[in-house]
Design brief:
Length: about 120
């Protein structure tokens, strides 16, 4: 018997240098490529390129650039299917039907403000 579970589907991880991320705080947040082999938290209304998975003491971090990810959202709850998302500047994603990038949203948890989507 199977349980419904989207964790880790199609996930590829790339290790990059993170100059401004805080270990224990910034894991699970959307990031953008800010310089060669470097990521930074995606700002408000910015498109994000990946989700931070882990941050080491020396500032290096593992970033998921693909696969199904679950993160917090702010504002209006995303719908299901092809939904345009972008960063909100506070470590969450949000819906932006005009400027966001399309992602396939497979689950929304409105109680915990979580959205599961394919990067």
């Amino acid at each position: 018997m199977y349980d419904i579970d989207n964790k880790g589907i199609g996930e590829k991880t790339v290790v990059t240098m993170a100059s401004a991320l805080t270990r224990g705080t910034d894991e699970g947040k959307p990031v953008k490529i800010s310089a060669s082999n470097t990521v930074a938290l995606a700002g408000d209304n910015e498109l994000f390129h990946g989700i931070v998975k882990t941050i080491e003491k020396d500032g290096k971090c593992a970033v998921a650039l693909d696969g199904v990810q679950t993160v917090t959202y702010s504002g209006t709850a995303p719908g299901l299917g092809l939904i345009k998302l972008e960063a909100d500047g506070a470590g969450n994603v949000k819906v932006d039907a005009t400027n966001g990038r399309e992602h396939v949203v497979v689950a929304v948890d409105t109680t915990n403000t979580l959205v599961t989507f394919k990067l």
